[in-house]
Design goal:
Elements lengths: L12 E7 L3 E8 L3 E9 L3 H17 L6 E6 L28 H9 L3 E5 H12 L8 E6 L3 E7 L2 E2 L33 H5 L1 H8 L10 H21 L3 E5 L8 H13 L7 H7 E2 L7 H11 L1
Helix pairs in contact: 1-2, 3-9, 6-7
Bound molecules: zinc ion.
């Protein structure tokens, strides 16, 4: 967990928000104790959702649980440039009604504590590097495969893509031979990675992935695209860990299929053994709380 402030008796309490498109998760987190108070609220209108979050933290403060800082790991697109006048502002995107909402300004005014904001995937990446599947490595990528596809990448001591954030979900990939008929689900590019391999895109071709049996061609098609994403990351950045998270990765057989197809596509080019590939392409360890722990890391950057 986090390092203690020297001189203080108790480790600081950090307020964290995992701001998702469906749910906002709020928590107070303290070193060695983990989550000491938590609450979740549906993502509706900015006014309704943000005031519920602020009310939760104020109520905790009345009970004596005072946070010293806040970190927010948020859905995007969002301005994550600390030097920008719009730092913390949600930009025009698919989440209707949230554009121009500034999360940082809102909570700094409501709670009078410093607030740091970054993307949900950057938050999850930093948390996995601190406490989870990518602990102790210098270079790692976190890819989330859910309703969309996003990635956070850390290399050479920094998050990559600053002052913006990567848009790795929209790279081009080669079509699977058995997937030539689908036009793709991305409203901007059609058959980019997200347009072919998000949970939404998989559902459009094969129905709810939860009902898709192991061994179905849909999983081979999905793994083929994710394997291409992993080869792109490996060849460009040589990360020590590629963490594949998000709802679709809850299918337990998918990660093995991705590793297998990664090995075939790579064709031993980097000389990676099966064990090395198994160690490279992994699933998250922090589960549902990755975003919240990400918020803690962001608050302490
Ligand atoms: Zn796209």
């Amino acid at each position: 967990m986090m390092s203690t402030d020297s001189g203080s008796q108790q480790p600081p309490i950090i307020a964290s928000i995992d701001a998702g498109g469906t749910t906002f998760k709020c928590a107070l987190i303290q070193e060695e104790r983990g989550v000491i108070a938590g609450m979740r609220v549906p993502t509706t209108s900015p006014d309704e959702t943000l005031s519920s979050c602020a009310a939760f933290f104020k109520e905790q403060a009345r009970k004596g649980l005072n946070a010293s800082a806040m970190g927010i790991a948020s859905f995007g697109p969002i301005d994550v440039d600390p030097n920008s006048s719009n730092y913390g502002m949600i930009l025009d995107g698919p989440k209707f009604g949230w554009a121009a909402t500034n999360l940082k300004d809102y909570f700094e005014q409501a709670l009078s504590i410093p607030v740091a904001v970054d993307t949900d995937v950057n938050g999850a990446l930093l948390a996995e590097m601190e406490w989870g599947a990518a602990k102790g490595v210098d270079a790692a990528a976190y890819v989330t495969i859910g309703t969309g596809i996003g990635a956070g990448i850390f290399a050479n001591g920094n998050l990559i893509g600053k002052p913006h954030h990567p848009e790795f979900g929209h790279i081009r990939v080669q079509r699977h031979d058995a997937d030539k008929a689908f036009s793709g689900g991305c409203s901007i590019h059609g058959d980019c990675l997200e347009g072919l391999a998000s949970a939404t895109a998989l559902t459009r071709r094969f129905g709810n992935p939860v009902n898709l049996p192991k061994g179905h061609i849909g999983w081979d098609i999905e793994a083929y695209y994710l394997a291409q994403a992993c080869t792109a990351l490996s060849l460009m950045l040589r990360p020590s860990k590629i963490v594949l998270g998000g709802g679709l990765m809850l299918a337990p057989h998918l990660i093995g299929n991705v590793r297998h197809q990664y090995a075939e596509l790579m064709n031993d080019y980097l000389g990676q053994s099966k064990d090395e590939i198994d160690n490279l392409i992994v699933t998250p360890e922090l589960g549902d709380d990755a975003g919240l722990f990400g918020g803690v890391r962001l608050a302490k950057l």
